[in-house]
Amino acid sequence: MAHDEMSRRENRQLAAASATMGPWRTAAGVGAVVGATALGIEAISGDWSLSMLAEPAGWGLFFFFLTAWAGGQLRRDTGDRRLRRWAREHPWRSALPAAGGLLVLNMLAQVLLGGSGLIGAFFVSLIPAAVLMAIAGVTNGVKEARRKG
Questions:
Q1: 71, part of any domain
Q2: Which residues lie closer than 8 Å to 85 by C-beta, 6 or more apart?
């Protein structure tokens, strides 16, 4: 069955499966380091409150999901070869679980830690999710161009 003949449900299942290929321990380490660095910068600013945790949490989550997605795309030693090919052929769909997870978790961090309203937190969280999707598209576009050339 060709990829174009797959149902929406099958494409969602493949996207979720491709998201599991990421190096999760490495991603957690990168996210923790970036979040701790951002928290240190916030602490230096002197504005001490619970809301000072929202922005570092957002930075940590962004780099966590970016590292997990990128590592899953770059790793060749794990996972099904057909699944990696599907992810390479569908960069936007393969990045959707990471972008969706980032959107939801960053929105929760903004609401719970930053004191933002639900609508404001959604729009603030939409920006990093869109940047993650853009990075996914550009990265795979360049990778495909280099592979063909």
A1: yes
A2: none
Q: What is the dihedral of CA 13, 15, 16, 18, to 10 degrees?
A: 120
Q: What total of structural domains would you count in the chain?
A: 1
| Angstrom distance (rounded) from CA 34 to CA 40 | 10
CB 111 within 8 A of CB 118: yes
Alpha-carbon distance 99 to 30, whole Å? 17
Per-residue pLDDT tens over the stretch 2-28:
445 677 777 667 776 766 677 889 999
Question: Does residue 18 lie within any of the structural domains?
Answer: no
Cβ(23)–Cβ(70) below 8 Å:
no
Give per-residue pLDDT as tens, 81-101.
777 777 777 777 878 888 999
Which pLDDT does position 100 carry in this prediction? 92
**Could you tell me if residue 30 is inside a domain?**
yes
Dihedral (Cα; 116, 117, 122, 123), 10-degree rounding: -70
Residue 136, in any domain of the structure: yes
